[in-house]
Inverse folding.
């Protein structure tokens, strides 16, 4: 079986898309765009150098543009405080009592958790909001009324 250059470029693009789906690295999708551009250049019967230039311009340009877009966008919250990564952030828990070190045990989603007060002032029993999760410990703050 004799494969054309365009077929090889399409296979490379497909492998890059599959690798992106497996890894979640969006940059691989940009490189797949470059391979697709090279395949189109091969369909136009451009020589190998033209195909490589098309791949480099499209793939490299897309990676550079995506990098600039991400750099200029707002920074995401740290993982311990990011509700997109942990759906418990922002949930309410009831604290029965605090110890002298500002720690407590709370019941959340069917389990007992260690909790630490992260707000200002002295912790008081009552309703609190999960502000962050650090390891297996909830960082709580007073619930805003």
């Amino acid at each position: 079986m004799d494969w054309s250059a365009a077929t090889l470029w399409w296979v490379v693009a497909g492998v890059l898309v599959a690798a992106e789906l497996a890894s979640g690295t969006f940059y691989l999708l940009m490189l797949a765009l470059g391979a697709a551009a090279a395949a189109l250049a091969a369909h136009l019967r451009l020589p190998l150098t033209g195909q490589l230039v098309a791949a480099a311009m499209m793939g490299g340009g897309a990676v550079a543009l995506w990098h600039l877009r991400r750099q200029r966008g707002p920074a995401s919250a740290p993982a311990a405080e990011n509700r997109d990564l942990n759906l418990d952030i922002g949930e309410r828990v009831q604290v029965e009592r605090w110890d002298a070190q500002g720690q407590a045990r709370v019941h959340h989603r069917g389990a007992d958790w260690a909790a630490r007060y992260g707000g200002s002032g002295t912790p008081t029993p009552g309703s609190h909001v999960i502000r962050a999760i650090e390891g297996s410990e909830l960082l709580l703050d007073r619930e805003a009324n």
In short: The mean pLDDT is 89. The two ends are 72 Å apart (CA to CA). Residues 5-72 form one domain. The helical segments are 5-23, 26-43, 48-72.
